[in-house]
Amino acid sequence: MASRRTDSPMHARLMESAAHLLALEGPSGLSTRKVAAAAGTSTMTLYSHFGSMPELIKAVVDEGYARLADEFERAPRTDDPVADLGGIFAAYISHARASPDLYVVMFGSASLGGYRSTPDDLMRTGRYAYDYIVEAARRAVEAGRLDELAPVAIAAQIWTALHGYVVLEVAGYYTPPDAGIRNVLRPMMLNLVIGLGDSRESALRSSRAWFPHDQA
Asked: DSSP secondary-structure letter at 184?
């Protein structure tokens, strides 16, 4: 796992301020003066921490993926790999809820204008977080619960489904959010796991461990 980029409270505050301005106003709202003012510091402090605005935006994206990887790291590992997928789902949701501005910036839901990284750069940045999902998928395949597809292909489907749901939740389309998990995300992921090869009976049994606090 990559190390965290946050090395001081001010460093973190500058990144949070930049992420919030990007989420709120887009790149037109991003200037050294605005970011520094939002963080309660000077432009000189911003430059001493990051050197340039592109470096600050890169740090914002890196921090988002580092926090997501931290959430994945805490997900449980048991002898039921399909039940453990619920920990991946919950970690992803937890990250988006805790850091919504970082989330929309790191996945491009907020326009970055000229600060946009290339797709290859983003994949390199986020690869270590993505690998947690790949490993969870690999365990389910090796246990004979999911079809013998490449785990990376299974992980891509899981991430795509999670991201689609989270974008709508962050935008406020599911109110209250826990009802969205119960009525949309949980059945969607159950259907996905069954479609990927698990039996309905086994998937239902394992899915009881998913989002235990959000079940009806």
From this structure: I
> Per the structure block, which two tokens stand in for 130?
């993505």
Q: How far apart are CA 80 and CA 139, in angstroms?
A: 9
58 burial level (CB within 10 Å; 0-12, 13-18, 19+): middle
Based on the number of CB atoms within 10 Å of its own CB, is 206 exposed (0-12), middle (13-18) or buried (19 or more)?
A: buried
Q: Which residue has the higher pLDDT, 103 or 184?
A: 184
pLDDT top residue among 111 and 139:
139
CA distance 127 to 124: 5
Assign 119 to helix, strand or coil. Answer: helix
Residue type, 133: I
Q: How far apart are CA 177 and CA 93, in angstroms?
A: 10
DSSP symbol at 75: S
Please compute, for residue 161, the number of CA atoms within 13 A of its CA located in the half-sphere on the CB side: 22
pLDDT, tens digit (0-9, with 9 covering 90-100), for 22-45: 888 877 778 889 999 999 999 999
CA quadruple 76, 82, 83, 85: dihedral positive or negative? Answer: positive
Task: Give the residue among 166, 24, 35 at the shortest CA–CA distance from 103.
Answer: 166
Helix, strand or coil for residue 12? helix
Q: What is the CA radius of gyration of the chain?
A: 19
